[in-house]
């Protein structure tokens, strides 16, 4: 995955994440549309001519605000498509990183990871590439001696470690 296309050829890079985002935008849009319709209808009924029936007020509100509803309905595809395009900027890099990690786990040769210029999390590619270079150079291997942090992950083991250190230190008799 060394070369990255300037433009994406697919809209859904990660169907699970991007599908959830698209569904969330759809739910928010439906909630907004429902709230708008109910609000306009209530205003028409409460502030309109008291001699008209509720159904007459609803019909009047429907005809008066039909253009508004058509405009709102036509915006939904644009909202969903824009959300999917924006999500490509973080879903794409994570998919590329996941594939690079899978390839590394399978023992395939390291190919430097590069994200598109507008993608989020550019530092992930840099960190991955630096880690793989260190691994290839053999400097990523861990020492067999646990670090001080690993020794003191919980308080009891840390206290025991300190006690052992004190027990093995020579005592100065002055």
List keywords for this structure.
174 residues, mainly alpha
Give the topology, please.
Elements (H helix, E strand, L loop, with lengths): L14 H33 L6 H11 L1 H40 L16 H16 L10 H4 L3 H13 L7
Helix pairs in contact: 1-2, 1-3
General description of the model:
This protein is mostly helical. It has one domain. The protein is 67% helix and 0% strand. The protein is built from six helices and no strands. The protein has helices at 15-47, 54-64, 66-105, 122-137, 148-151, 155-167. α1 (15-47) packs across α2 (54-64) and α1 runs antiparallel to α3 (66-105). The longest helix is centred in the middle third of the chain and has 40 residues, at 66-105. The termini are far apart. The mean pLDDT is 81.
